[in-house]
Write a structure and sequence with these properties.
Elements: H1 37-66, H2 109-123, H3 127-137, H4 140-154, H5 157-163, H6 165-179, H7 182-193, H8 199-207, H9 209-227, H10 230-251, H11 264-274, H12 287-291, H13 294-323, H14 329-359, H15 365-390, H16 394-408, H17 418-422, H18 427-452, H19 458-482
Length: 507
């Protein structure tokens, strides 16, 4: 067998995990990360996804202020002994602290679930088209345009709410439609920008903006509702999204070659280490081999399962804090945000740790992705079960929910970036496919929560947490059995070149 030069891989051994930098040390040291173009892009993406999730979750807390719960009649079957007592000994005070002039609505639990799930109906429609077009045309306009469009629509939320439930439902679905392209566009851009030994930390850091956005938005929404009224929430966050878009379009380029401020050393480092398997793809994609790929289906199933618990907490945790633990709206926003602070820190640290393991060749890419996925799905399931057991112990509930979400952040260095491992040049398309399936829980979970908690009882929420834990554990086990970190045969450059850019050497 002929020797294969460092940075290349034999095409007859496509099952080997090989990328230009994972086969050995680079010929030249990597340019410093500080003030680099690639980390500047990661920072802007981080802030962009913080805005994206602020726009996504603000309704979760604002709805506590928007709904006049005192006039929504409870079900005849509701058992008062199942509800937890208010911490101060009085009834829920969430509505008493708001400015009196703001409108309030008579939305029951099922209606609230439908409105919270409306976003994902639009979100699911643009995942695959967004990933496909971003992979071919570049992700800059799709990511920036998705955030800007969602921000503009957010400014119209108070008007839509006053016009009626159908209008607000349609507006939230349109917001999801605009935001659906953002994550596939991010992955398509990192296919051009992320060196293999920096993938985990760059992608995990930029994607961790979503948890940071939820952490900031949840308490800030509660504060704004108390002081200015819930309509101001949508004006503030919508304006922030528009401001971010200005910086994005001024400073970002689709790839290193077209960036106006990148150093020649960094540009050469990125393009050399990514090789031909990164970058954009043509108009045609190997759709049939993709759909027959077991590693891809393991990602899809794992993301569906992980997203069920994630979206359950993202959209419904403020309601649990309000109706069961009986926190007022200020406490609600702050305590609902704690799990996302932990998830943000966990995601960033897991990305650094994953790259360290790969740099030192301690574990294969497959092993790294499976370890972080198992940690980020099995352990959170244990703490969700614990939340169901502790009942009205509000301090323990907050601690267990925070631990569950914090540990869940480690899966960002596992299944959530696995698309770029198995098919770098099609990473945007694959993320669109996996996110399309992964969005289904965003539509279904809030509706299921709404029906399970119609009685606003502790027993109903216990079922919510047990169901989420079981689904999470199932996804972790499936990915551990069938997941892979190897570049798939159908993802190799059709020109017969290897990931390092050198022609494949034959036996």
């Amino acid at each position: 067998m002929a020797l294969v030069s460092r940075g290349s891989v034999n095409c007859n051994s496509c099952d080997e995990e090989a990328t230009p930098l994972l086969d050995g040390e680079p010929a030249e040291p990597a340019p410093p990360a500080c003030c680099s173009a690639r980390w500047g892009l990661a920072t802007l993406m981080f802030l962009g996804f913080a805005v994206v999730y602020a726009l996504r979750v603000n309704l979760s807390v604002a709805m506590v202020a928007m709904v006049n719960v005192s006039t929504v009649p409870p079900s005849n079957n509701q058992s008062s002994r199942e509800a937890c007592p208010a911490p101060s000994g009085d009834a829920n005070s969430s509505g008493s602290e708001e400015p009196p002039a703001v409108p309030r609505f008579l939305w029951d639990s099922a209606t609230q679930g439908l409105l919270l799930g409306a976003f994902f109906i639009g979100y699911i429609l643009t995942q695959i088209p967004g990933g496909y077009l971003s992979g071919h045309l570049g992700g800059r306009w799709f990511l920036g345009g998705g955030v800007l469009g969602t921000a503009v629509l957010t400014l119209l939320t108070p008007l839509a709410a006053q016009m009626g439930v159908p209008w607000l439902f349609a507006l939230r679905a349109m917001e999801g439609f605009g935001e659906g392209v953002t994550f596939p566009a991010m992955m398509a851009m990192w296919a051009c920008w992320a060196p293999p030994l920096e993938r985990s930390r760059l992608i995990s850091f930029s994607g961790a903006g979503s948890n940071f956005g939820a952490f900031v938005a949840l308490p800030l929404t509660g504060f704004i509702c108390r002081t200015l009224g819930w309509p101001a929430v949508f004006y503030c966050f919508g304006g922030a999204g528009c401001l971010w878009a200005v910086f994005w379009f001024l400073l970002v380029s689709d790839d290193p070659r077209s960036h106006r401020r990148i150093s020649e050393q960094e540009r050469d480092y990125i393009t050399r280490t990514i090789g031909t398997e990164g970058g954009s793809h043509g108009w045609s994609v190997p759709l049939v081999p993709m759909l027959l790929s077991l590693p891809l289906w393991s990602i899809i199933i794992a993301q569906i399962c992980a997203n069920w618990s994630y979206y359950t907490l993202l959209t419904s945790l403020p309601t649990y804090m309000d109706t069961i633990l009986r926190f007022n709206i200020g406490e609600n926003g702050f305590l609902s945000a704690l799990p996302y602070l932990g998830a943000w820190l966990s995601a960033v640290l897991s990305g650094v740790l994953a790259d360290c393991l790969l740099e030192r060749a301690l574990l294969s890419t497959t092993a790294v992705r499976k370890i972080f996925t198992l940690t980020g799905m099995l352990l959170p399931a244990v703490f969700l079960v614990a939340v169901g057991f502790i009942g009205c112990n509000s301090m323990a509930a907050v601690i267990f929910l925070t631990l569950s979400s914090s540990l869940g952040g480690s899966s960002s260095a596992g299944v959530y970036i696995n698309q770029i491992d198995i098919a770098p040049r099609y990473a945007g398309v694959l993320l669109g496919i996996t996110n399309t399936f992964g969005t289904i829980p965003g539509i279904v979970a809030p509706i299921v929560v709404g029906y399970l908690t119609t009685e606003r009882s502790l027993a109903g929420w216990r079922e919510v947490f047990y169901l989420s834990a079981a689904i999470n554990a199932a996804g972790a086990l499936i990915f551990s059995a069938f997941g892979s970190g190897k570049i798939q045969k159908w993802a190799l450059d059709t020109r017969g070149q290897t990931p390092g850019g050198s022609p494949a050497e034959q036996d």
